[in-house]
Design a protein that fits this description.
The protein is α/β, with parallel strands linked by helices and 388 residues long. Helices cover 32% and strands 21% of the residues. The chain binds D-malate.
């Protein structure tokens, strides 16, 4: 029985994907795999039998990726599964920044008992008026699944769109509206946009990437939208830019003691992907990626191990080996396999940073002693044998 431990509420349509041979379990120590949303795992000690963690969502800054890779624990996320929900939130944020819609709604609440409210509204409305999105320039930093959707939606609202992404994938490039102008210098976005939206992961490299010097390059009165992660923005610098009017509105999905006290910020309680549809999509994708890895050793959408997919297991057995990305590993692993007289039908070895993953299809069964001998090789983190 494979034990799945959910560290947050995961949509049932997702956990239903597992079927026979799997069980949801309450005890972390018994977990073969973890499903998680926002629970912090940095201080969690993982059991030796833990094979994988699936994050039902995009951001993985709540998971210790390197420690997991060192232990041979594959971490998956679900890129794109909640992209539509986040796109809709970003567009909503841009619209809220255009007119003082929130101020107007509050005004109605404040005057709810006034019999003359209709007449008063006609007089009061001027203070909440604003501008339109059409004709303005939207700068999109990061053109992954979410950024590409935001870029296209902005185009369909009549905006000019600039997109910046030094790691633009072929899939995103294909999905982009042909009128989205791809720029190769971040400054082009900063200097030329009326609205800027950021869609990059929070990593040590991107932390605080929107700070004083980038804000100084922006147009006066720019609207900055952050539905990615608060750590990307130097919030002290943003607070000062809001105070002096350099940034007219900071729309952020991350409420914290600094943003909640910024007078011209529009702050939401991390609602970007909070829709039933997004939660279902993420849960289904996360569960299916876990299943495919557990049953077939295939790795799709991992953030700490490379992509590897041989499809369903049809040969005698499949040997899955996690190892350090150092010289002689492949020779040593295949050496053990050939010494045991086993025939390799198909093999791949791919690396991501310091870690690598070999997938080896063998014509016949692989005896447990062979897996043990592979595990004993210096530099091998974990070896699994999958049988039909
Ligand atoms: C994500 O990272 O997928 C979004 O921020 C939503 C979430 O955290 O669930």
């Amino acid at each position: 029985m494979i034990n799945i431990h959910c560290m947050n509420a995961i949509a049932k349509v997702g956990t239903d994907q597992f079927g026979p041979g799997y069980e949801l379990c309450d005890r972390l120590e018994a977990a073969d795999a973890i499903m998680v949303r926002s629970a912090q795992l940095h201080d969690v000690e993982f059991p030796d039998n833990l094979l994988a963690i699936a994050r039902a969502g995009a951001g993985v800054n709540n998971i210790p990726l390197d420690r997991c890779a060192d232990q041979g624990i594959v971490v998956f996320n679900t890129p794109g599964a909640n992209a539509n929900a986040v796109k809709e939130s970003v567009i909503c944020g841009a619209l809220l920044a255009c007119r003082d819609i929130l101020g107007g709604i509050n005004w109605v609440h404040e005057n709810v008992d006034e019999p003359q409210i209709a007449k008063m509204a006609e007089k009061a409305k001027n203070q909440f008026s604003g501008r339109e999105l059409a004709g303005k320039t939207m700068g999109v930093i990061g053109l992954g699944a979410i950024g590409a959707m935001v870029a296209n939606a902005s185009r369909s609202l009549g905006m000019k769109v600039l997109g910046y992404d030094p790691y633009l994938s072929l899939r995103s490039a294909w999905s982009l509206d042909r009128h989205v102008k791809h720029v190769t210098n971040l400054d082009d976005i900063l200097i030329n946009s009326d609205f800027i939206t950021i869609h990059v992961p929070a990593t040590p490299q991107t932390k605080g990437m929107i700070g004083r010097s980038s804000i100084a390059k922006m147009k006066d009165g720019v609207v900055f939208l952050n539905f990615a992660r608060d750590a990307l923005v130097d919030e002290q610098a943003m607070a000062e830019a809001l105070d002096d009017g350099k940034v007219s509105r900071y729309v952020t999905d991350f409420a914290n003691p600094i943003t909640a006290n910024m007078p011209r910020a529009i702050v939401m309680p991390h609602l970007g992907a909070s829709t039933g549809e997004a939660e279902d999509n993420c849960a289904v994708m996360a569960a299916n990626q876990l299943k495919d890895y557990i049953e077939n050793g295939n790795i799709n959408n991992s953030v700490n191990y490379p992509h590897a997919d041989f499809g369903p297991l049809v040969s005698g057995a499949r040997l899955c080996v996690f190892h350090r990305n150092i010289p002689t590993m492949i020779g040593q692993i295949t050496g053990v396999v050939s010494e045991a007289g086993l025939n390799i039908e198909n093999m791949s070895d791919k690396s991501m940073g310091e870690h690598a993953y070999s997938l080896i299809d063998i014509s016949t069964d692989v005896p447990d002693e062979v897996a043990q001998a592979v595990t004993a090789i210096n530099g091998v983190t974990r070896a699994r044998v999958l049988r039909k």
